[in-house]
């Protein structure tokens, strides 16, 4: 986005775009969102990107949970801690979303139940990988 700002500003202006939404991972500090917001002459809002959180059957999910724990400074080894970390990411974005909550819809298949999340979190704590 940095290199295309003049073109982006022109396009957004010509198309009368009033609101531009960025897709931001739950672990994001929103730095790139803030860069876009300061560079564009339109209302720029972050979304609550859940994609990585919903792929619990993948090995990358454990990396995501580690990053979520680090980003929120919240222990995610229990289901309750995992939910608390989620809540912190939502609350972090809340001031940037006056009156609205935005979430991109890019996940094709989301499966799982609280017991599945708990099993994966428990396996993560033990250093193993749970089977879906």
TrEMBL record:
GO MF term list: glucuronate isomerase activity
Position of the signal peptide: none
Keyword list, A-Z: Isomerase
SUPFAM superfamilies: Metallo-dependent hydrolases (SSF51556)
Segments for region (Disordered): 94-114
Pfam families in the cross-refs: UxaC
InterPro entries, per database record: Metal_Hydrolase, Uronate_isomerase
Pathway involvement of the protein, from the record: Carbohydrate metabolism; pentose and glucuronate interconversion
Catalytic activity, EC: 5.3.1.12
GO BP terms, alphabetized: D-galacturonate catabolic process; D-glucuronate catabolic process
Chemical reaction(s) catalysed: D-glucuronate = D-fructuronate
Family membership noted in the UniProt record: Belongs to the metallo-dependent hydrolases superfamily. Uronate isomerase family.
Name recorded for this polypeptide: Uronate isomerase
Lineage: Archaea, Methanobacteriati, Methanobacteriota, Stenosarchaea group, Halobacteria
């Amino acid at each position: 986005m940095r290199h295309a700002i003049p073109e982006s500003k022109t396009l957004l202006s010509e198309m009368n775009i009033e609101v531009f939404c960025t897709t931001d991972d739950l672990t994001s500090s929103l730095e790139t969102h803030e860069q876009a917001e300061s560079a564009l002459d339109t209302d720029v809002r972050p979304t609550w990107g859940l994609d990585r959180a919903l792929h619990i059957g993948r090995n990358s999910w454990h990396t995501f949970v580690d990053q979520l724990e680090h980003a929120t400074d919240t222990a995610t080894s229990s289901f309750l801690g995992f939910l608390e970390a989620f809540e912190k990411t939502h609350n972090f974005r809340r001031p940037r979303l006056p009156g609205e909550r935005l979430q991109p819809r890019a996940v094709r298949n989301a499966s799982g139940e609280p017991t599945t999340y708990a099993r994966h979190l428990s396996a993560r704590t033990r250093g193993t990988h749970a089977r879906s």
